Amino acid sequence: METLRLVLLFLHVLGFAALLGGLLVQVREPTKQVNAAMRDGAGTAFLMGLLLVGVLEAGDGAVDHAKVGVKFAIGLVILVLVMANMRKPRIPTGLYLGLLALTVANIAVAIFWTPTHA
Fold first, then answer.
1. Residue 51, in any domain of the structure
2. CA 48, CA 16: separation in Å to the nearest integer?
3. In DSSP terms, which residues pair with 91 in a beta bridge?
4. Cβ atoms within 10 A of the Cβ of 3, count?
5. Is residue 118 part of a domain?
6. How far apart are CA 42 and CA 20, in angstroms?
7. Which of 36, 99, 106, 112 has the CB geometry, 3.0–4.6 Å to 74, for a possible disulfide?
8. How many alpha carbons lie under 13 Å from residue 74 in its C-beta half-sphere?
9. What is the pTM of this model?
């Protein structure tokens, strides 16, 4: 079970790397658009996150449901925005910056949200 958890975590991280890379490659471009890396990265990160939570729930460890809920909500918003704008030739700068901020926020939640021990 631990091997499966690690593989899913690895794929989850790769998904976020692809999403962030797809966003950052356009920083200096005047016209922003949803690219394949963003699409595939958002989908992979979201799906692997769901599967990872399932594996964690099936295991013996405690799951921080608040953290999972926040990451799920942010990830779902990213996925919906990316998929809704996939076929458009360009996206507004505000949407691009919003996707970038949400992606960085989701990564920050994953890293900095540590469980509290009572």
1. yes
2. 10
3. 32
4. 7
5. no
6. 9
7. 106
8. 22
9. 0.92
